[in-house]
């Protein structure tokens, strides 16, 4: 079981660390995430994207011609964020880890099914050994980010809790 460590310097002294299952619920239910990768010159690149929390990791896909794909070719370390754009309610979550490419149809089909379940026909993928496929001929590459560190920012009361893996 994963237990968080609350940092009382950054919140209400009455705050308590949320259970890891509550943080995972935020990650699983989010519709939109922000992925930050690093360009070859060291500048950050942040973009919104859809994804799924599946088997304890964040999964996303990207086209071969996209900036995030080029960035991942040289630097796999990323952050993934999600939450609510509010001050007094909700929980914001930051996942730190390395993006690892997923290959093999047997590993990709469960992720394609997870996308379909979460987003419906807008994100209905097929899978082969290299990545996802679709009727338009695109073949996005699929990555998973297994967390090395997760920070959950509570807002009512304000708190900061770190989970290490």
From TrEMBL:
Residues 23-147 form the Pyridoxamine 5'-phosphate oxidase N-terminal domain. Keywords: Oxidoreductase. Pfam families: PNPOx_N. PANTHER family: HEME OXYGENASE HI_0854-RELATED, PYRIDOXAMINE 5'-PHOSPHATE OXIDASE-RELATED FMN-BINDING. This is Pyridoxamine 5'-phosphate oxidase family protein. It comes from Nocardioides hankookensis.
